[in-house]
Design brief:
With about 130 residues, this protein is an all-beta fold. It has no helices and ten strands.
Amino acid sequence: QLQTVESGGGLVQTGGSLRLSCVTSGRTVGPTIVGWFRQAPGKERTFVAAVTWSGEGTMYADSVKGRFTISKDSAENTVYLQMNSLEPENTANYYCGVTTGRLNIATKMWKGYRNWGQGTQVTVSS
């Protein structure tokens, strides 16, 4: 099964950009989706974006549409999350995880994912 390692977080000012990386290793079993979620202290883990293993299908949380872009580099087995126009409300620890199936409403539920990485902290200052 796929394992994941996140990186790319940091401190950025409002309006700035960051690109997060989720490096995967191992093998896929069935139709695979890699998702990015975020979790602020004391809050539940929430969906940000997801991409199918082929890279052809994507899904976004409404709050990030038009600002964030998820993509997959098959040669590097890496899923990227390009985040533009960052806001203080985007401050959180960002995680990537793996699930199987097709993109649907269940894709946005963190409990369906496994093999989470250690996360990468994103802090947006005002």
